[in-house]
Amino acid sequence: MLLERERELIVKYGRKLITSNLTTGSGGNLSIYNREEGLVAIKPTGIDYFDMEPVDVVVMTIDGRVVDGNKLPSSEFNFHLGLIKSRPDITAVIHTHQVYATTIACLGWELPAVHYLVGFSGNKVPIAPYACFGTPELADNIIRSIGNYNACLMQNHGLVTVGANIATAFTAAEEIELVARLYYQTKCIGEPVILSNDQMAVVGEKFKTYGQKK
């Protein structure tokens, strides 16, 4: 079975999306790119995360040809492959329908630096214009809007996060949900104080040395 480890991780983190309340049912999708093999493991379309097994995960070439698996790939494979091809630092892509981030996306807003943990994306989370799911237009909108950020809201749709591995992409999705909730709640009370670009630049530098390092 090609990309056995990557397929196992797709199953593991797919289930974590559900248990962490980052999506529901079979919604959302995730992928991992093995650069040495030039292959991408991606969630199959329309399958419940707790029914999905590693053998169900689809393996594709970076140009979109299925090379292993007997299921159809995610309907959003266009933007997964597009993001991976657009930036050499991207090895994993996660797309969710998490409630608070999607609420902000449904308002057509970017997510500003209401809390320093927005730094998991950058100094904000930009938003991509709406396009129907599964279309090349949506893929183009996301790739253009995300730039060098690690997260991007999708108008009237959800959130996409990227990372050097699936764990960092998942952490970004979790932390952005917290920031989105804080933004929602502060907007309900008044006008939140937004951190400046200079303040977020300091956060970005500190993030480089945060956590356990090898």
From TrEMBL:
<dbReference type="Pfam" id="PF00596">
    <property type="entry name" value="Aldolase_II"/>
</dbReference>
<dbReference type="InterPro" id="IPR001303">
    <property type="entry name" value="Aldolase_II/adducin_N"/>
</dbReference>
<dbReference type="GO" id="GO:0016832">
    <property type="term" value="F:aldehyde-lyase activity"/>
</dbReference>
<feature type="domain" description="Class II aldolase/adducin N-terminal">
    <location>
        <begin position="8"/>
        <end position="184"/>
    </location>
</feature>
<dbReference type="InterPro" id="IPR036409">
    <property type="entry name" value="Aldolase_II/adducin_N_sf"/>
</dbReference>
<dbReference type="InterPro" id="IPR050197">
    <property type="entry name" value="Aldolase_class_II_sugar_metab"/>
</dbReference>
<keyword id="KW-0456">Lyase</keyword>
<keyword id="KW-0479">Metal-binding</keyword>
<dbReference type="GO" id="GO:0005829">
    <property type="term" value="C:cytosol"/>
</dbReference>
<protein>
    <submittedName>
        <fullName>L-fuculose 1-phosphate aldolase</fullName>
    </submittedName>
</protein>
<dbReference type="GO" id="GO:0019323">
    <property type="term" value="P:pentose catabolic process"/>
</dbReference>
<dbReference type="GO" id="GO:0046872">
    <property type="term" value="F:metal ion binding"/>
</dbReference>
